[in-house]
Amino acid sequence: MPGPDAARAAAILADLGPLLPSLASPALVVDLAAVDHNIAAVLRRCGDGLGSRAADRWRPHVKTLKTAALVRRLWAAGVTRCKCATLDELQMLLETAAEDGREDSLDVLLAYPLHEAAFRVARRLLAAHPAARVQLLADSPAHALAMDGWARTAAAPLDLHLDVDLGMARTGSPPSVWREAIADLASLSRLRVAGLHGYEGHLAWSQTREAAVAYDQLCDLAAAVACIGTDPLELVTSGTHSFSAALDHPRLNGGPWRHRISPGTVVLSDLRSEPAADLLDLRQAAYVLARVISRGSDRVTLDAGSKAIAPDRPAPNCRLPAWPGLVPLSPSEEHLPLRREHGALPDLGAAVLLVPDHVCTTVNLYRECLLLGRNEAPVRAVIGASGHRLYFAPDGQDTSA
Ligand SMILES: Cc1ncc(COP(=O)(O)O)c(C=O)c1O
Q1: How would you classify the pairing of strands 326-328 and 318-319?
Q2: CA 20 to 30 Å from 9, out of 67, 153, 190, 197?
Q3: Cα(238) to centroid(ligand 1), Å
Q4: How far, in Å, from the CA of 251 to the mean position of ligand 1?
Q5: How many Cβ atoms sit within 10 Å of the Cβ of residue 200?
Q6: What angle do CA 29, 31, 32 make, to 5 degrees?
């Protein structure tokens, strides 16, 4: 008996049938019903006791989606806050909101420390979309003071989150460093402390005790910073691998601040988010369509190597729901060999669907994806923020002025 994901993969392949002669592979395919189901599932978990204010608790990271059409599914569900990491993501969000006439409800946290040239581009984008709220991130007190200088011509103060290093040792400063800098932060003239960003991405789902210690540190710092920040301060924590512990933490929940979680992977789901998927009953929403390009006696090879799926993950970096007897081996750039453990082998040229171990790095490899809706023809969507730009501004304009 095939499992539910095998049945869904078979249904998706059947829907794609008429397109297969013209559809290239590898191709990224997104099941919109699963996207909507996953968004609703996160909102239900956020909303325990909150009713319609559930959407207020979630600031999803759009690094997973990078696609205007998918961001619009969040907006349609009432989720208007988000987080992003790159200027391409910020630009995609602002331009999509402008196109839809909804800039005034967009609230983005650019959760990435900006150097001066990137800061100038962010400000230009902000100036072009003044109705949208964009908050920036300070890596350290020195970075906050430097940004204050870069912003000296800003007409209105810019909202700033202090990046708090809760043990991940990637960006931000420890709580003690921020606490000692409160007097300096009070002197900022063009920046206003609007929140604390404490991303605990070093912790696994099961490390709830360590997470609680980190959240207490964040709450203690929030209490100390309250005198110089906006009222209420916003506290942003947690991705797909720890949001549930954060939602349950009494002090994050009950303080004079507003706490929000920021998982993004939950919208599409992948193999490595299994604990979250189990808790929320998530459905797999993103698949890579691949074809068999070589067939041996106990092995087939697909046209979906490390340039097509989860390039950052060790083998097996994906799963084939409809072919459980095939084990993905180490990929090369354009090839993915699969070893037969049991069952039949797919035919040469056959199309198969793969579930990525890591969906964020998979989406980033594609320029376009195919959106599959129930009872609608498949729609081609541009992944506008995948990859990386060459110049800060279009056509290499100088942005230093
Ligand atoms: C700053 C930040 N916030 C949130 C997330 C959450 O993302 P995910 O849902 O993929 O765990 C990440 C993941 O890398 C991150 O770096």
Answers
A1: unpaired
A2: 67
A3: 7
A4: 22
A5: 24
A6: 125
pLDDT of residue 2: 52
CA distance 126 to 122: 6
- The pLDDT assigned to 367 comes to 98
pLDDT value of position 1: 45
Amino acid at 305: G
C-beta 240 within 6 A of ligand 1: yes
Q: Which residue segments constitute the domains of the chain, with CATH numbers given?
A: 4-31+283-382 (2.40.37.20), 35-278 (3.20.20.10)
Is the predicted pLDDT of residue 262 greater than 50, yes or no?
yes
Residue 105's pLDDT is 97
Residue 270 to residue 265: CA distance in whole angstroms: 7
> Which of 58, 59, 63 has the most ligand 1 atoms within 8 A of CB, as the residue to mutate?
63
Distance 65 CA to ligand 1 centre (A): 12
CA distance 208 to 242: 8
Atom from ligand 1 closest to the CA of residue 266: 9
- CA distances to 145, 371, 397 from 400, rounded to whole Å, are 19, 39, 9
The residue ranges of DSSP E strands in 151-270, in sequence order, are 158-163, 191-198, 229-237, 258-261
| Model confidence at 196: pLDDT above 60 | yes
64 Cα: distance to centroid of ligand 1 (angstroms): 9
Contacts of 132 (CB under 8 A, 6+ apart): 93, 94, 97, 103, 104, 106, 107, 108, 126
Atom of ligand 1 nearest to the CA of 236: 3
Phi-psi label, residue 239: left if phi above 0, alpha if psi -120 to 50, beta otherwise:
beta
Closest atom of ligand 1 to 111 CA is 1
Average pLDDT, the chain: 95
* Residue 395 confidence (pLDDT): 59
Distance between CA 89 and CA 84 in Å, rounded?
Answer: 6
Condensed to tens digits (0 to 9), the pLDDT of residues 182-195 reads 999 999 999 999 99
By residue count, the chain amounts to 401
Residue 263, ligand 1, Cβ within 6 A: yes
Q: What is the pLDDT of residues 265-308, one digit of tens each?
A: 999 999 999 999 999 999 999 999 999 999 999 999 999 999 99
